[in-house]
């Protein structure tokens, strides 16, 4: 295949995987919305709702390293298609069970676990495959489109699900999910996951345990990758302050109506969408780790500002507008952290280790979510939010300054810092 044909195929991939991801995520979000309301309506128990959330997080955190090993050692296309087919069969099984026996919460839990496992395999494999689907010059655009599709699904899923809930029973939600994943399956079946692969066809497959060990060893030997993973772990832990506290502060302490809180959360999805469009249309960030560090510091500062309505005499409308802006800013800065680092990791991680690195990173990040939620849940029950958020903000700033210190940035981008250190006029000379 000549270069012109490869570029044409890469363009096809850019739009095809964006469409497939958007359709699949839309179907998943519609079903998740319907199931959440169904569980609450059927049981009236917050614990049942929380159990389903655990079923959608914990299995993914546990199997992500295994998914990374499979992505590195087996056909990415086959892995993704099998995972998508697994989702369709799981939801189809739940639909059949509902038609013959009747819907039950335990059946939903089991289906959620299998769906989550399938999602882990397809998600990690897709993450490791982006750099082989498109040319390096369009890698940032591809990742931006990927994030954009998730943002659109995050906005559209609850909207569509909310309209459907009053008119259709649970069977329709399940069928919508199956149709969405079937369309995504057909689109992904047309893609060439080896278009820009640098691996030879005779690459030897590693045994599972040896492959996982070599993945750990690869990360251990690369200081910058290791640092990024630790930053991701701590940030996911401490940003639970907003995941837990945002709802608690806005709904419980400030008594904002649930409808208006829905608009506040939607402003975050809108911010993520606009930030994705920005990164899709601009040139690649030249010093991604420094860009992400600045975004992280700004995000940490915004966390501290979130307590302002608690210590001032804001009117109700001013409170809603304030949090609309804050959640919008959160999303913008979050994209400013994730997008440059994501593109940077795609480029510096060797293709044969990409799946395992992303799988382990996902495990570390996701394992912190339930821990952070429990810790901050207890903190908000015992301490005022006006102490928790500013202290968390300071902790995140310290983590950013210490872990993403100048020596790490220089190690990550030696070409930029060496050029910056040269006297004026020397940078343009050649030897």
From TrEMBL:
UniProt-listed Gene3D superfamilies: MFS general substrate transporter like domains (1.20.1250.20)
Transmembrane segments: 12-40, 46-67, 79-97, 103-136, 148-168, 228-251, 263-281, 293-311, 317-345, 357-379, 385-404
InterPro entries, per database record: MFS, MFS_trans_sf
Major subcellular site: membrane
Membrane topology reported for the UniProt record: Multi-pass membrane protein
Keywords recorded for this protein, A-Z: Cell membrane, Membrane, Transmembrane, Transmembrane helix, Transport
Coiled-coil residues: none
Cellular location(s): Cell membrane
PANTHER family in UniProt: MACROLIDE-EFFLUX PROTEIN (PTHR43266), PERMEASE, MAJOR FACILITATOR SUPERFAMILY-RELATED (PTHR43266:SF9)
Name used for this protein in its record: MFS transporter
């Amino acid at each position: 295949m000549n270069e012109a044909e490869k570029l044409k195929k890469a363009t096809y991939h850019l739009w095809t995987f964006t469409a497939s991801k958007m359709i699949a995520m839309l179907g998943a979000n519609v079903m998740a919305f319907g199931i959440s309301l169904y569980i609450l309506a059927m049981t009236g128990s917050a614990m049942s709702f929380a159990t389903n959330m655990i079923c959608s997080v914990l299995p993914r955190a546990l199997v992500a390293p295994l998914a990374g090993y499979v992505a590195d050692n087996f056909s990415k296309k086959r892995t993704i298609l099998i995972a998508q087919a697994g989702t369709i069969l799981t939801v189809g099984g739940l639909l059949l069970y509902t038609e013959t026996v009747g819907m039950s919460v335990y059946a939903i839990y089991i289906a959620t676990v299998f769906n989550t496992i399938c999602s882990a395999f397809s998600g990690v494999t897709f993450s490791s495959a982006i750099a082989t689907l498109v040319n390096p010059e369009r890698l940032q655009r591809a990742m931006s489109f990927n994030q954009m599709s998730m943002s659109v699904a995050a906005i559209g899923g609850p909207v569509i699900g909310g309209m459907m809930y009053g008119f259709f029973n649970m069977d329709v939600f399940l069928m919508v999910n199956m149709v969405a994943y079937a369309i995504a399956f057909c689109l992904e079946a047309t893609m060439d996951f080896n278009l820009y692969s640098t691996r030879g066809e005779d690459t030897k497959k590693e045994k599972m345990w040896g492959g996982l060990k070599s993945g750990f060893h690869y990360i251990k030997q690369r200081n910058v990758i290791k640092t990024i993973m630790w930053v991701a772990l701590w940030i996911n832990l401490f940003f639970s302050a907003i995941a837990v506290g945002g709802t608690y502060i806005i709904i419980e302490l400030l008594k904002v109506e649930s409808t208006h809180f829905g608009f506040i959360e939607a402003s975050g999805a809108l911010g993520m969408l606009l930030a994705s469009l920005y990164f899709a249309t601009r040139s690649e960030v030249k010093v991604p780790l420094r860009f992400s560090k600045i975004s992280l510091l700004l995000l940490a500062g915004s966390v501290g500002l979130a307590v302002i309505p608690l210590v001032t005499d804001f009117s109700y409308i001013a409170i809603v507008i304030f949090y609309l802006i804050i959640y919008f800013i959160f999303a913008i800065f979050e994209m400013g952290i994730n997008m440059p680092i994501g593109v940077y990791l795609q480029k510096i991680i060797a293709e044969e280790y990409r799946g395992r690195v992303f799988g382990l990173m996902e495990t570390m990040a996701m394992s912190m979510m339930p821990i952070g939620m429990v810790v901050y849940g207890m903190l908000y029950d015992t301490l005022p939010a006006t102490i928790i958020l500013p202290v968390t903000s300071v902790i995140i700033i310290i983590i950013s300054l210490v872990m993403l210190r100048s020596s790490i940035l220089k190690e990550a981008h030696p070409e930029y810092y060496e050029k910056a250190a040269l006297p004026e006029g020397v940078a343009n000379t050649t030897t």
